[in-house]
Amino acid sequence: MSARSSFPIVELTIPSTMQAPGAPAFEAMVEVRNRVETGILGSGVLSYSAAELLPGFQNPYKPRRLFVAHDGGNVVARAILSWVTAAGSSTSSVTVEVDGAYRRRGIGSTMLDQLEDIVRGAGRPIIQSSVLHTAHTSGPSVAASSGFGSVPATDPGVRFLISRGYRLEQIKRVSFLEVGQDSRELTEHRKNAERIAGPDYELKLWSGATPPEYLTDLARLKTAMSLDDPPAGLKRTVDAWDEARIIKRDQDQTSSGRELLTAAVLHLPSGSLVGFTEISLPADVGGAAAQEDTLVISEHRGFSLGMLLKTTNLQRLGPETKIVYTFNAEENRPMLRVNEALGFRAVGYEGGWEKSIVS
Ligand SMILES: CC(C)(COP(=O)(O)OP(=O)(O)OC[C@H]1O[C@@H](n2cnc3c(N)ncnc32)[C@H](O)[C@@H]1OP(=O)(O)O)[C@@H](O)C(=O)NCCC(=O)NCCS
């Protein structure tokens, strides 16, 4: 508990399951997340249930420490510190979210102080934060160092992070696609992409667990994703995947109630997967689907494989899915070109912030 905030701050033990004793506190933490992010975006589309988020908090490849602030019996703020365990990683990630009614009372500062103190002693001095920001108003804005995009200077998160010495390096666009409106357009885009890709490429589709014959290739592609996603001025962290990590990730998705739809493209002459895309379906039927990673490795770009993968996977969605959302770097023109052609439209922005702590 800190001297600056009069609201007690405690570290939560991450429960092993949603039936374990710590589960109600974990659930209250997730409710703060959903309230704060719904408030920023003006839509609850990005909300997750506690069960869906729990595996992410138990991920041994990306450990997290979790803190909450209380007002009496209520959880009113949350703070998360996470890091990648890969050797040589020098970055830590932080998130601080405070319920609207409890802001400007020092809770956010106290929680961030606490996370920064832990980072200071942990040998990962570069702190990053991915933060949803309110949509643009006509007022002053803060531009990202990447040169692509800006956020309102009056947004509480922007004011808070600038006052703490963080730099806005990158903007990610949050986009929604309303699906099922015009399936002919999707079919046309897919046919066109098939024609450009030609006979050297074959699609492989699966849902849930990755077929054993593709584990090695998918691990290679997921590792490449951590290297290829444009980082702008953010320090890049190589996040290495192997077969065991893919298997664990697949098991976690299933146990959380979500379902992962994967489309991959096999390059027939080499017999290797050279691209993939993933859509994560919510446990709650009818909720929004998340368009997750998409990658085509550099030697195979320019053959419309990104469009082929995305259109094919989107065509697998049932009528219960009405909205798909995705996050893309504002400078990632090749991916945005595909998404814009498919009808994704911007609904919000996420800032990629960074600060280096010198002990
Ligand atoms: C950003 C956030 C965590 C701040 O939490 P908080 O408990 O209000 O923070 P504090 O009371 O410690 O305020 C710290 C400073 O941030 C700045 N700040 C925060 N909100 C502000 C606002 N609406 N207008 C102007 N400055 C603001 C001020 O410098 C403030 O200090 P001051 O109150 O002495 O002027 C909270 O607004 C929030 O949850 N926003 C959504 C999530 C987010 O943007 N998180 C960013 C960090 S990962």
Automatic annotation (TrEMBL):
NAD as UniProt keyword: no
Organism domain of life: Bacteria
Chain segments annotated as transmembrane: none
Gene3D superfamilies for the chain: 3.40.630.30
Assigned keywords, A-Z: Transferase
GO molecular function: acyltransferase activity, transferring groups other than amino-acyl groups
Hydrolase listed as a keyword: no
N-acetyltransferase domain mapped to chain residues: 16-194
Name of the featured protein: GNAT superfamily N-acetyltransferase
